[in-house]
Design goal:
five-stranded antiparallel sheet, 40% strand, Alpha-Beta Plaits, SH3 type barrels, three-stranded mixed sheet, alpha+beta
């Protein structure tokens, strides 16, 4: 099941505005405490272009000293990355960031994966264009999938999308 409320977590609330000032959007932030060390993973995006190494570096240089001070004597392992090609989507919020990207959602009504380009999303559903159900070659121009029916979701990639300039 998809989560909701990542935007309401204390880590997200603290770091999203700082990254936004750099022109970077916070997709996800998670923290794992392991004894005397803490692992933090940050996933970022930029609007209108792909994230590059300099974006990841800026975020690292901004976040690391701040987190290190908060942790006192504990060791910090910080990782900053992009969503990648096949990211597992964990929160409904991510659909709003991924408009124009292809996703695969496991739709419980169809009992199969649905692949399509995200056109829009709101609090209750995502609208996909150029969608395919399972291995079918039948194109569905527009399909609305309620979040309640989505069991799993991932970014997807189709070679055919590149041939059309997407």
């Amino acid at each position: 099941m998809l989560g909701t409320g990542i935007q309401n977590t204390s880590l997200f609330a603290e770091y999203a505005p700082l990254l936004e000032a750099l022109g970077i959007t916070l997709v996800d932030i998670s923290r794992v405490d392991r004894g005397f060390s803490v692992g933090v993973h940050i996933t970022i995006m930029t609007k209108g272009r792909e994230v590059d190494v300099s974006d990841c570096s800026k975020v690292y240089k901004l976040v690391y000293p701040r987190m290190e001070l908060q942790l006192d004597e504990r060791d910090l392992e910080l990782e900053v990355s992009t969503p990648g090609l096949q990211r597992t989507i964990r929160d409904v919020y991510e659909f709003t960031l991924l408009e124009g990207k292809r996703v695969r959602v496991y739709d419980t009504e169809h009992g199969d994966w649905v692949s399509g380009l995200i056109t829009t999303s709101d609090d209750s559903s995502v609208t996909l264009s150029t969608a395919y159900i399972g291995d079918s070659q039948d194109l569905i121009e527009t399909m609305v999938v309620p979040f309640a029916r989505i069991q799993k979701a991932k970014l997807d990639y189709r070679w055919e999308d590149d041939s059309h300039g997407n």
